[in-house]
Amino acid sequence: MNAIALLGRRVIERVRGIGVATVMLLQILFSMPTRLGVTLFIYQMHRIGVMSLLIIGVSGLFIGLVLGLQGYSILVNVGSEAMLGTMVSLTLLRELAPVVAALLFAGRAGSALTAEIGLMKATEQLSSMEMIGVDPLKRIVSPRLWAGIVSLPMLTVIFAAIGILGGKMVGVDFLGVDEGSYWSGMQNAVQFGHDVVNGIIKSIVFALICTWIAVYQGYACEPTSEGIATSTTRTVVYSSLCVLGFDFVLTAVMFGGVQ
Amino acid sequence: MNNQIPSRSLIEIKNLSFKRGERIIYDNISLTIRRGQITAIMGPSGTGKTTLLRLIGGQLVPDQGQVLLDGKDIATMTRSDLFAARARMGMLFQSGALFTDMTTYENVAFPLRAHTKLPEHLIAEIVALKLESVGLRGAEQLMPSELSGGMNRRVALARAIALDPELIMYDEPFAGQDPIVMGVLSRLIRSLREALDLTTIIVSHDVAETLSIADYIYVVAEGKIQGEGTPAELREHASPFVRQFLTGSIEGPVDYQFSHQAYLSDEVRS
Amino acid sequence: MKSRTSELTVGIFVIIFGVALFFLAMKVSGLSGTNLRDAYEMTAQFDNVNGLKPRAKVTMSGVTIGRVTDITLDPVSRLATVHFELDGKLTSFNKEQLKMVKANALEELRYSTEYTEAMPAQQKEMEKQLVDNMNSITSIDEDAYIMVATNGLLGEKYLKVVPGGGLNYVKRGESIANTQGTMDLEDLISKFITGGAGKSSEKMADAKTSSESTGAEASFVE
Description:
The complex is a heterotrimer of chains A (about 260), B (about 270) and C (about 220).
Chain A: H1 2-29, H2 35-49, H3 53-75, H4 84-122, H5 125-132, H6 136-174, H7 179-189, H8 192-219, H9 225-255
Helix pairs in contact in A: 2-6, 3-4, 3-6, 4-6, 4-7, 4-8, 4-9, 6-8, 8-9
Chain B: E1 9-20, E2 23-34, E3 38-42, H1 49-57, E4 64-69, E5 72-73, H2 79-87, E6 89-92, H3 104-115, H4 120-133, H5 149-160, E7 167-171, H6 179-196, E8 199-204, H7 207-213, E9 216-221, E10 224-229, H8 231-235, H9 240-247, H10 254-269
Parallel strand pairs in B: 3-8, 3-9, 6-7, 7-8
Antiparallel strand pairs in B: 1-2, 1-4, 4-5, 9-10
Helix pairs in contact in B: 3-4, 3-5, 4-5
Chain C: H1 3-28, H2 31-34, E1 39-46, E2 57-60, E3 63-73, E4 80-87, H3 88-91, H4 95-111, H5 113-116, H6 120-134, E5 137-141, E6 145-150, E7 157-162, E8 169-171, E9 175-176, E10 178-180, H7 185-193
């Protein structure tokens, strides 16, 4: 009986946590920007967005290369290697770019956010800020949240573009697929409004999820070193699971319908 | 602020009760912080002394009872009132709690920037003044990570007095310091009180230093006030608990021993 | 808080993003390409459009001249109505060609029975009407037929316009009358079994005006 009660309490705690997190999110999303807020936001865009460029770019390149390689080896068996452009671009735009960029983001930027905010909490910086009368939610959390929501979609687009170029490098330059068919096949199959925009919408949803989880875990973490470690792990795990789960839902809604 | 002669007490805590989860931190306690005096709140580690400071600062809301600042209940203040009230308080946290991504200068200027619209050169003057008063003029461009622990606390003190508050609260200022730093801090606390007529609250479990500078002491344990008085009164205090605490002996009321363990393990966990 | 370098790097970040987005829009999804110049809509009705999807291409002699925009079902005739957009630049005559076409058409008109039997005033009417019609003419003649074709052996479906030999042309916005729907596998097999030839292309729907496709056998693989 005790085990069940414990489980119940845990679940209630988690649900309450989600409630607190939601209130926090809404408070941040619906407050007006200030001059100082914009400066802080830009600084966080640098810390979160620009500093992730390297991992996103390199990963995008490698994924594009692998897609090109694998795609070619599969398509050439059915004589459709001319479809390589279509395959690489659609896979990247619809699925891989939003999902992989989000997972990488959660690992790199998300965990850094959680650790940073958690450490601030543990060293009582958040408390002292509150005692001085400045709301740490506005000063510390909000710029980071917005920076995350804005930079991940941008990173996703860059990821997709680099990936497609990587696929071209492998397919056209190394494996001899006709450059014309690579691009024209792609252009025929890819619809901006359907594929590119939906991919961006996905990445916006993922950005919201990952950054929100990261920021909340930091804010609510136990102010010990163990607590920070737990929260950081939670950020990565929860973010990843949510991204994959929401990806399924979004894919079903966006691409599952009858065309 | 009322137009009458300010009353003798700046902060009044009336029948305060506060629980964290299942644990009762404060059970119907009342205490008074008098203006211009150094009031110490002492007790075993983990009794929630920091919590009391947070209640005074409005970070936490009591379950029952009132925390009155100049007669106004902090818990029912509007946001702007609370903001103004916080400008009148300075708090020095146990670890200094300097903002690690800003320079010393930025740290001390932080409250000034938050509460005033002073032009930059005036802010620079005030920061220099405050740093001078804690003996750290010249450390403006250093980052907190480049300062020693003691220097960290002094900068935090400069930050706490940046707005010339009426009340300053010290959370365990003597914890883990070497005797020289402790002496320096005691002197600073006293001279600040004299120079600025600051009302001071010290939360501590260091008996010797606290008794040497406090004007009035409350001994808090198990959610209740076990004893209060001036240092002299406290030394003669009848309560066995207080005697045991002051002398630091292991023997005393039996349940003190038992709960001391629990508090310790609680503190480690939380 | 280094604000100046941050602003610079974030600015660069935004520029990189802009370039990537532009690349995705232009090179990858061919956004500019889908802006058909001088686009106009036409329709055609089929008995079967299985496999045809919106945005499928419309070709004439192998050149993509447009895209399918919409496929609906007419509840009365139970025929599939396909709306498609055509590129005006590819399917219109330029000035000289238009002159020649007009001249040819006028000549044919003058040889037609209705004309010779008409009063001069009526003749003028008919000529004027002809010239008016020429203004929004396409290069698709009235004998042309449009069919659902397959790209490759197992590829996607698209619309193919096969020109006829007529000298009269369809106007913009009109319907192409002669259509050939998708040949499902079962239809093919039954044709094969009941004695239809395999790949030979027999004459298409002779009735110009009929909007129902007949069971004509056309090669469905191109």
